[in-house]
């Protein structure tokens, strides 16, 4: 450089006080001949000698010095400047993003063939780019993978964007709908009407559901019409208005609604028929009372039965409403909470609520199974089908099925004595064991033991289930086998009051009897004895 001594000093001061990495590099010797204070500080170096030793392995990560020199030399043959963004590492291992610029120094007297190297820290800029990229990825995941059809259109009602669900819903390939009018997705007969509604909406857009109270239809690519629910939204970007339709296929929902209407009509007819039947029977009873005084006792018994039936219905309705409400509420609340955890890292929270939903559905299934079992028993539709049963195998398999109900540190212990086989109905015996074990687990605390004992002799088979639970009062023991009966000390524990009633009925079908031994806060033992003689 043709500088006077003063000029050289000024140049040196300017370079030394530059906030950027500034260095002069000689590609012939593969060394820096100058590196300012900022450059040394950026790479945690004390002097130029340390810098050349450090950069000998390469200025950029994963690239040798020779490779870097070749890349720069080739570029400078056709361009005035070489510039690239890359990751850099200091001697201590600290990594940062930087933008390196290289220019060829043209002043032959002092720096012939030398390069002017500038390096700026762009860590903040790179972090912003990464955040933007992640935001785009999240938007794509939310939009493209949403479990509903999303269709975006511009002010001219032309489709500008669709997600995968919408393409599949209407039977189109990816991007096939782009540029088409929104009327493409509507019934042909409604195209003109829709245009008029669209003009009104564009004049005064608002976020709202579409077609409240109407049976909305949409049209697939093959012309098939199907029922939909649509919500509308809008936004403005760069002075342009866009409108979004969120579309759900409710064909199945409509089908269920129609089936419910038909069922309700059928129930109404049955109720009317039942009311008429009750009226007819009452009239017949009144006439019988007038004509046959001797049948008074029989009529009183019939009325008593009617009263008992009414009470049973009332208890059934009250119990069913309560028992179904609890799991349904759990399902609804968990399903709502899942929507609040859309992020991948929140999978554990979603799993927690999914587990609650599965548990509630399982509980509903058990309740329905009990109701169905009682109905079949009352109608005499359940019969015993005898076959040879291997006792330990049956009990162990059944206990494995109920083990998922165990509370913290609860355990099941099984003891068997006598012969291993006898002839009975395997399915009914298994259901008896499941009912008794489920009750024992339900009414026992954590860290308790439930003992299952079986004994087989030539004349009888005995099954007993002993727990360490809350026990049953002597007064409640008198009614334990009644339908829907629940002890006074279990009102805060979920149940239908049908379990022991079903056990007693199944035991009767197998030619046996059930007995109970219990004390409050000490535990309960239920014994089933089948006579084999």
Automatic annotation (TrEMBL):
Ranges in coiled-coil conformation: 253-309
Recorded GO MF terms: protein histidine kinase activity
Class in the EC hierarchy, top level: transferase
Catalysis performed (reactions): ATP + protein L-histidine = ADP + protein N-phospho-L-histidine
Protein keywords: Coiled coil, Kinase, Phosphoprotein, Transferase, Two-component regulatory system
Limits of the PAS domain: 135-205
Transmembrane regions listed in the UniProt entry: none
InterPro entries: HATPase_C_sf, HATPase_dom, His_kinase_dom, HisK_dim/P_dom, HisK_dim/P_sf, PAS, PAS-like_dom_sf, Sensor_HK_Regulatory
Domain Histidine kinase: 319-533
Pfam family, one: HATPase_c
EC id: 2.7.13.3
Protein name per Swiss-Prot or TrEMBL: histidine kinase
Organism listed in the record: Flectobacillus roseus
């Amino acid at each position: 450089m043709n500088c006077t001594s003063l000029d050289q000093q000024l140049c040196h001061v300017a370079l030394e006080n530059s906030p950027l990495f500034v260095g002069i590099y000689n590609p012939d010797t593969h060394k820096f001949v100058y590196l300012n204070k900022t450059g040394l500080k950026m790479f945690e170096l004390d002097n130029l000698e340390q810098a050349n030793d450090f950069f000998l392995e390469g200025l950029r990560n994963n690239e040798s010095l020779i490779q870097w020199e070749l890349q720069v030399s080739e570029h400078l043959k056709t361009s005035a400047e070489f510039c690239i963004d890359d990751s850099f590492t200091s001697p201590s291992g600290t990594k940062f993003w930087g933008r390196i610029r290289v220019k060829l120094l043209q002043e032959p007297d002092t720096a012939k063939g030398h390069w002017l190297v500038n390096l700026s820290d762009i860590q903040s800029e790179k972090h912003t780019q990464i955040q933007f990229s992640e935001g785009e990825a999240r938007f794509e995941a939310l939009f493209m993978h949403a479990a509903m059809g999303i269709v975006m259109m511009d002010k001219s009602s032309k489709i500008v964007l669709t997600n995968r669900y919408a393409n599949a819903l209407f039977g189109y390939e990816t991007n096939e709908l782009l540029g088409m009018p929104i009327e493409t997705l509507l019934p042909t007969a409604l195209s003109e009407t829709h245009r008029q509604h669209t003009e009104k909406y564009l004049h005064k857009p608002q976020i709202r559901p579409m077609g409240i109270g109407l049976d909305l239809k949409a049209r697939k690519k093959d012309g098939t019409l199907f029922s939909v629910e649509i919500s509308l939204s809008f936004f403005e970007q760069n002075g342009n208005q866009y409108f979004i339709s969120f579309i759900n296929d409710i064909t199945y929902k409509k089908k269920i609604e129609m089936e419910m209407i038909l069922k309700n009509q059928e129930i109404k007819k049955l109720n009317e028929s039942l009311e008429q039947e009750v009226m007819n029977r009452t009239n017949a009873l009144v006439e019988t009372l007038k004509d046959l005084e001797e049948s008074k006792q029989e009529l009183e018994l019939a009325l008593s039965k009617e009263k008992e039936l009414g009470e049973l219905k009332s208890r059934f309705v009250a119990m069913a409403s309560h028992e179904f409400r609890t799991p349904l509420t759990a399902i609804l609340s968990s399903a709502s909470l899942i929507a609040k955890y859309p992020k991948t890292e929140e999978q554990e929270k979603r799993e927690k609520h999914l587990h609650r939903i599965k548990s509630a559905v399982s509980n509903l299934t058990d309740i329905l199974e009990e109701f169905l079992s009682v109905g079949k028993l009352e109608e005499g539709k359940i019969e015993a089908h005898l076959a040879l049963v291997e006792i330990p195998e049956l009990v162990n398999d059944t206990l494995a099925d109920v083990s998922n109900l165990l509370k913290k540190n609860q355990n099941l212990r099984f003891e068997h004595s006598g012969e291993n086989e006898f002839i009975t109905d395997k399915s009914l015996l298994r259901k008896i064991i499941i009912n008794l074990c489920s009750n024992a687990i339900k009414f026992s605390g954590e860290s308790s033991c439930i003992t299952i004992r079986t004994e087989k002799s030539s004349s009888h088979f005995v099954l007993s289930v002993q727990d360490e639970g809350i026990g049953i009062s002597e007064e409640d023991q008198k009614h334990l086998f009644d339908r829907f009966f629940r002890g006074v000390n279990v009102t805060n524990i979920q149940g239908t009051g049908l379990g022991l009633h079903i056990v007693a009925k199944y035991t009767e079908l197998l030619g046996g009897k059930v007995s109970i031994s219990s004390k409050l806060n000490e535990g309960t033992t239920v014994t089933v004895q089948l006579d084999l003689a």
